[in-house]
Amino acid sequence: MDTAISFREEYLKISFTPLSLHGIWTGRIKLFMQLFKELSTDKYVKVITPRVATLEEILLAHSRSYVEYVKKSSIIGEGYLDYGDTRSYKGVFEDALLAIGGTTTLAEMIKENYIRAGFNPQGGFHHAKVNSASGFCVFNDVAIAALLFRKWGFRRIAIVDIDVHHGDGTQQILYNTDILKISIHMYYPGFFPGTGNIYELGEDEGYGYSVNIPLPPGSGDDIFIYSVDEVILPLLEQYKPRMIIVQMGCDAHEGDPLAWLRLTTRAYDIFSLNIRNLAEKYSNGRILCLGGGGYNEDNVARSWLLMLINLFNIEPLRDIKDRLRDLNEGTKSSSELWDIVRRRTRELKEELSVVHKI
Ligand SMILES: [Zn+2]
């Protein structure tokens, strides 16, 4: 078995969300693990008990003063770490290290060639910034993983973030690096976090390596797949990543209560098949998959498992994909939305043409 999932019992109790979403956050992981066993995925994918993240790993992406702040808040144990999204409580620091450890353990295993791909369901905290918590995220394991691989000498690391919210923390931490960061997300005035338009392209040697694909509310599978074909795949084909990190937030799913994109398992299926093919071509199949958002337990658990069957390339499990699909696959978008997306895509490709030939 050369693929793995990070899991420890504590993962069923950890969330940095307000209490109103705590049950959903942990419930998705519980349901995913149940589904994983029920469908005998564990015959082909091993479940590993990850270690705790080290301070050295956290400091790759965050300032010492912010880490100290989280440590202190964890002792006081009340309120929020930020403006009112990311809950503080006694032990929040230790819990954050446990969650991030799921990612760094898998990263290490991939580096050592023990596995070629892994998934941390308690990962994908893409909003945490150098100096602050944000959007239910304490430390940014997406950026930490990318910086770990870079430290180990990997060149051409690509991050693809399909969470419905912009991966603003990852972008900020890695803004001036040539680690390729692609985020496809919903974009609309007042929608969290407010960043992620096509003109945020990076700085210095990072210019052209922050790529944002902002989708209007209501966009369906057709628009998502178009963006994958028009922007994500050509960019990755050109970049030829030696390591691929995927933030697999499923809150762009049609049934998600926090946002208004209309993806179904069809979009997730096609996306993950394409990423798998790219990984086979360029990164020896190396993919690190991280959980991210998603606030409808059933949709998240099914979409995660369906994507992993593709991303991990588990041939014998192909048939069970049909048991994971939505009933109403293949949502279509209105012509107004298509006009907006085509225009933005044209503009984005023009901006990127200075750096990439796509
Ligand atoms: Zn999200």
List the defining traits of the structure above:
358 residues; alpha/beta; Arginase, Chain A; eight-stranded parallel beta sheet; binds zinc ion
Short recap of the structure:
This protein is an alpha/beta fold and 358 residues long.
Which helices and strands appear, and what pairs or packs with what?
Elements: E1 3-6, H1 19-38, E2 46-48, H2 55-58, H3 64-76, H4 92-111, E3 117-120, H5 141-151, E4 157-161, H6 168-173, E5 180-186, E6 210-215, H7 221-239, E7 243-247, H8 265-282, E8 287-290, H9 297-311, H10 321-324, H11 335-352
Helix pairs in contact: 1-9, 4-5, 7-8, 7-11, 8-9
Zinc ion binds at residues 163-165, 249, 251, 293.
Structure description:
The chain is 41% helix and 11% strand. With 358 residues, the chain is of the alpha/beta class. It has a single domain, classed as 3-Layer(aba) Sandwich (Arginase, Chain A). It has an eight-stranded parallel sheet with strand order 2-1-3-8-7-4-5-6, with helices on both faces. Helix 4 packs parallel to helix 5 (141-151) and helix 8 packs parallel to helix 9. Bound molecules: zinc ion (ZN).
* Strand neighbour order, sheet with most strands: 2-1-3-8-7-4-5-6
Taking pLDDT < 50 over at least 5 consecutive residues as the criterion, the unreliable ranges are none
Shape: globular
Mean pLDDT: 97
Give the cofactors and ligands: zinc ion
Q: What's the CATH class, please?
A: Alpha Beta
Radius of gyration: 19 Å
* Proportion of residues in β-strands: 5-15%
Count the DSSP helices: 11
Distance between the termini: 37 Å
Total domain units: 1
Q: Which architecture would the CATH scheme give at its second level?
A: 3-Layer(aba) Sandwich
Summing up helix and strand content along with how strands pair, one would put the structural category as alpha/beta
The ordered string of helix (H) and strand (E) elements is EHEHHHEHEHEEHEHEHHH
Give me the CATH superfamily: Histone deacetylase domain
Largest sheet: 8 strands, parallel
